[in-house]
Amino acid sequence: NKSIVLTQREIEILSFLKGNYNNKEISKILNLSTRTVEGYVNTLKSKFKINNRYDLIKISNRPELQFLYK
């Protein structure tokens, strides 16, 4: 079972996805371009080996990941 390593920014992006923010909203809050946020979302999908945002949001709600958002 291989561990997935997330950067602080990826954790931040994941927490916004968990809160149902869209890429444009996240980009404004973090002062990043929408394309940069899209890149982070794509990297997260790749790291978790999933293909869509909905599954990424489901993963962000897993009980074992809640410690990330404190």
Topology:
Blueprint: H1 8-18, H2 23-30, H3 34-47, H4 53-60
Helix pairs in contact: 1-3, 1-4, 2-3
How would you describe this protein?
The protein is mainly α and 70 residues long. The protein has four helices and no strands. The protein has helices at residues 8-18, 23-30, 34-47, 53-60. It is globular and about 30 Å long.
Fill in the keyword field for this structure:
single chain; 70 residues; mainly alpha; 0% strand
Strands, total number: 0
- Beta-strand residue fraction: under 5%
Q: How many angstroms does the end-to-end distance come to? A: 25 Å
Shape: globular
Largest sheet: none
Gyration radius over CA? 11 Å
Could you list the spans in which at least 5 consecutive residues all have pLDDT below 50?
none
Q: Topology as H/E string? A: HHHH
Task: Please provide a brief summary of the model.
By secondary structure, the protein is mostly helical.
